[in-house]
Design a protein that fits this description.
- The complex is a heterotrimer of chains A (329), B (268) and C (335).
- With 329 residues, chain A is mainly α.
- Chain A contains 14 helices and no strands.
- Chain C contains 13 helices and no strands.
- Classes of the chains: A mainly alpha (329), B alpha/beta (268), C mainly alpha (335).
Chain lengths: 329, 268, 335
């Protein structure tokens, strides 16, 4: 572990290069394919051609959105795993994503005029409600980490079922179904602008507070003896989780497994130091979701696979691997 | 039949374990018929593994266990179950079973796939409950019994199986001294009054001295010694098997050997 | 020879079972009465005799009610056998993802074969899927150690994988999206008399093994050592119980899709009502499974009129909290 931990900068740089590669590939690939050179030229010097519009209005916002959402979910995943000391925790497996979607869907049905930024409020409220419930379960000590994960998954199933029920009851299925599977298809710049401040502020605060959050990973008494007010830092971490996950759900629906997976990948690559894990997650998260989206666009071309399905196909086996690794410890 | 075979249950060249790790190495054991045999040895010496292999729970990697002259692996499960019963160390039972319901499962090897319990089956259960002194508790939930009573209930289930051979893996662990004696007394009466052959893994040497006719001691997965307990239980055996210096004196009441441990070998 | 206590338990099981059957009858009657056109009891009775509402009752509502009862009972039984086989209170075919694999099997079999073959291709696909799900669960779950929760989580993850695969196939063949939604969520909508006949035949075919499995179920609670000692081969016993569970799950999924949580809910509720002995537990689980699916269907039909919420979604909304409750209750046991 220690010799791996020596090269976080190298790993970060490598992942960043890959990220740029995915960005270029994401901009180039599509129904009317562009050569990488062309895509780069249009990125650098936009003109009035339809290709330029395609790159700047369709593909670029999509890729950027995927990366912002990926960063949000990955950072939220790191925080929630640290806060609950549970390697199986994530915004998805603890039902936080589903809570946000239920709140959004309920509000969309109740107030059909609600659009864009208006969905962020309900998303936060839903995420916070479920997060609070899971946090209460977690600290009550009634359940071990496995049970907690199972409880979270059940809550997620129930909330998703409620979402479906609401949609069917209101004949609203068609419009929202695709969003529900977690999709980046309808990505546009307004969505990017919507999530960007949350990513910047939330991610920035998480990185700035990394040193303090690290103490949360210790048990509570040790934290206290180190002079840490666990309640205060824990509260801040919880707010960050809600903001990061909630805003991600608000722009592209509940996308699973990124928040679960990325922290594990990063810890494997670079060891356990929380600050390093947070920084690298902010790169690997976008990389993973960007790649998944690209994959979803390529694999059934010319049709398109919702990115949530791709992440589930990668994520479910990975979840098993994490479960296995937990046993080995 | 018996003139060809040393006993109803014996094993030859028994090796158990996978790859490099061998729990038992080339073990020959003969269980004397109609006696109480105690398997003794330090933790990890392989005594429990030997018992479980004799009861065909564990498959040996080499050698064989013979039951009534036949390799046990070649016999049908049900046939074995009519000859040999095993009481595991920590038996797990279905939820909410009464003592009597537990005992009914002991009749399984004597029944057909769909036949119901006959009056004779119930009679056998009744008699067995009387032997183990559990009749008053027959309709009590297992979970409500004391440790000693529960162990007796499991012994009753094995009795109901009507097997001439009874194998028990540490039947007295987790019991206090009174309950330990309670269980051992039941086993002795089964041996003396019904002529059942009993093999048990025991930790307490004085229990072995007091209740077993025959002792088999194991060291590091091999047989160290086998013979009558009165002859075998001596300070040098206790030193090699357990690494403990001890004094063996005549038991003030029964006259058999009584082991008094003194110190760990080499410690003083 | 029975003893006073056992007589008492038999009586209690009989009373509880009878009451639940009565309730099931009542719910079924409501199921026939309620719909786009509400019928009175008298009208329903006359419809059975060929009255003016005969078409609605015989062609739409009765098959639907009947399939709810049959499939619900099958899910309840499948749950009780799997839980018994694995000695794991969380291991019902729906929690551990077997129903999702069955759905995937049905869906892909339906897609890969010509429509004319579907009568036998889909049941075959369902069984293959369910069997694969069960085998994968056992193969992977065994490596994760004995914890009941770990096995359940393994199953949940496998189920998510199967679900993602269904969605994947759904994107490849968008024309079959409606069908795939049924395999995903579970619904008794549009059941026909032919569906009822097929499921009845299947369950009849399964009946002998169900009876044998029920007689062996109690023994599943023993440890493997004890089972061997009394002459029962543990692998055959547990394997047999799992196969019976898979057969039942497959039949039910083929009829109504991967309905969630019924297999978890029914055996647990039954255990609370009549205790853990299989002679009581098995029949009452079947009745409660039927009752749960019938209620879920009825609730889904009336709660959002004029729209219908699939029974599988209602079942998930009821069943999920129940699972969380169970996790609370099963505090310290084998984790």
């Amino acid at each position: 572990m220690t010799d791996r931990a020596r090269h976080p900068v190298l790993i970060g740089a490598l992942c960043f290069l890959l990220l740029v590669g995915v960005l270029i590939a994401g901009v180039s690939f599509g129904a009317s394919g562009l050569s990488v050179g062309n895509a780069l030229r249009l990125l650098a010097v936009p003109d009035t051609s339809p290709e330029s519009a395609l790159v700047w209005e369709v593909r670029l916002p999509r890729v950027v959105l995927a990366m912002l959402v990926g960063a949000n979910l990955a950072i939220a995943g790191v925080l929630i795993q640290t806060l609950t000391r549970n390697p199986l925790a994530s915004p998805q497996t603890f039902g936080i994503n589903a809570g946000a979607s239920l709140a959004i869907v309920a509000c969309l049905i109740a107030f059909p005029s609600l659009k864009g930024a208006g969905t962020v409020g309900p998303a936060f409220a839903g995420a916070a409600a479920v997060g609070l419930a899971m946090w209460a379960l977690s600290v009550s000590g009634v359940m071990n980490e496995l049970k907690l994960a199972l409880a979270g998954v059940s809550i997620q199933l129930v909330l998703s079922a409620l979402v479906q029920a609401i949609l069917i009851a209101n004949n609203a299925a068609q419009d929202i179904v695709y969003w529900l599977a977690g999709s980046l298809t309808a990505a546009q710049w307004p969505k990017v602008w919507l999530i960007l401040p949350f990513t910047l502020i939330g991610g920035g605060l998480a990185l700035a507070g990394a040193r303090h959050f690290g103490v949360l990973a210790l048990d509570q008494t040790t934290g206290l003896s180190l002079g840490q007010n666990a309640r205060y830092t824990g509260g801040l971490a919880a707010i960050l989780i809600v903001v990061l996950a909630g805003s991600a759900v608000a722009v592209c629906g509940p996308i699973g497994f990124i928040g679960l997976l990325v922290p594990h990948i990063v810890r494997r690559l670079a060891g356990g130091d929380l600050a390093v894990v947070l920084v690298l997650s902010a790169i690997v998260g976008p990389l993973l979701l960007g790649t998944a989206d690209l994959f979803g666009r390529i694999v059934v071309f010319p049709a398109e696979m919702p990115v949530g399905v791709v992440t589930a196909l990668i994520g479910a086996p990975a979840f098993l691997a994490i479960l296995y690794g937990r046993r080995a410890r | 039949m018996t003139e060809h075979h040393p006993a109803r249950l014996y094993c030859r060249n028994l090796t158990v374990g996978y790859g490099q790790t061998k729990v038992l190495r080339d073990v020959d054991v003969t269980i004397p018929d109609g006696r109480i045999t105690a398997l003794i040895g330090a933790n990890g010496s392989g005594k429990s593994t030997l018992l479980r292999t004799l009861a065909r729970i564990i498959r040996p990697s080499a050698g064989a266990v013979y039951l009534d002259g036949q390799p046990i692996a070649a016999l049908p499960n049900r046939t074995i179950a009519r000859t040999l019963a095993l009481l595991p160390q920590n038996p797990v039972s279905p939820d909410g079973l009464t003592v009597r319901q537990l005992c009914r499962f002991g009749r399984h090897p004597h029944r057909n796939l769909l036949s119901r319990l006959s009056g004779r089956d119930e009679e056998i259960i009744e008699q067995a409950l009387a032997v183990t002194d559990l009749l008053p508790m027959a309709n009590t939930d297992l979970s409500r019994l004391s440790g000693g009573q529960r162990q007796r209930a499991w012994i009753t289930m094995a009795l109901v199986q009507e097997t001439p051979l009874l194998l028990l893996d540490e039947p007295t662990t987790y019991l206090d001294i009174a309950h330990q004696l309670e269980v051992l007394e039941v086993l002795r009466s089964l041996n003396r009054n019904q002529g059942r052959t009993i093999v048990m893994v025991v930790h307490d040497l004085n229990h072995a001295a007091l209740y077993a006719d025959h002792i088999i001691s194991l060291v590091d997965g091999g047989i160290h010694a086998a013979g009558p307990s009165a002859e075998l239980l001596r300070p040098d055996l206790i030193r090699t098997v357990f690494g403990v210096e001890s004094l063996v004196i005549p038991h003030p009441v029964h006259g058999g050997p009584l082991c008094v441990p003194l110190a760990r070998h080499g410690a003083g | 020879m029975k003893h006073a206590r056992e007589h008492h338990e038999d009586r209690r099981a009989l009373v509880v079972g009878g009451a639940m059957l009565l309730l099931l009858g009542l719910v079924s009657l409501f199921g026939i009465m309620i719909g786009a056109i509400n019928l009175s009891v008298g009208e329903v009775l006359s419809a059975f005799g060929g009255g003016k509402n005969a078409f609605i009752v015989m062609e739409y509502r009765l098959p639907r009610v009947a399939i709810s009862i049959l499939a619900g009972a099958a899910f309840g039984l499948a749950g009780v056998f799997l839980q018994g086989a694995l000695r794991n209170p969380l291991a019902s075919p729906d929690v551990v993802g077997i129903t999702k694999w069955a759905g995937l099997g049905a869906f892909s079999a339906g897609l890969m074969t010509p429509p004319a073959w579907s009568a036998w291709a889909i049941p075959l696909g369902v069984m293959a899927g369910a069997l694969f799900g069960a085998l994968a669960l056992l193969a992977i779950g065994r490596r994760f150690g004995g914890s009941t929760t770990a096995l359940a989580l393994t199953g949940v993850a496998l189920g998510m994988f199967a679900q993602a695969l269904i969605q994947y196939v759904m994107v490849l063949f968008p024309s079959r999206a409606d069908q795939s939604m049924v395999w995903l969520a579970g619904s008794v909508y549009g059941s026909t008399g032919a569906d009822v006949a097929a499921l009845s035949l299947w369950l009849l075919f399964c009946l002998p093994v169900v009876v044998i499995a029920a007689r062996r179920l109690d023994a599943g609670g023993f440890g493997d050592d004890t089972l061997t000692s009394i002459g029962l081969a543990p692998s055959w016993l547990r394997g047999g119980l799992i196969v019976v569970s898979v057969l039942l799950t497959g039949g039910a999924v083929a009829a109504v899709g991967s309905m969630g949580f019924l297999g978890l809910l029914a055996p647990h509720a039954a255990r609370l009502m009549v205790g853990p002995r299989s002679r009581h537990l098995v029949p009452v689980s079947a009745v409660l499974g039927a009752l749960a699916l019938s209620i879920a269907d009825l609730a889904g039909r009336v709660v959002a009129l004029p729209n219908e919420i699939p029974a599988g979604i209602v079942a998930a909304v009821i069943g999920g909290p129940y699972l969380v409750f169970l996790l609370f209750k099963e505090k310290s046991r084998n984790d």
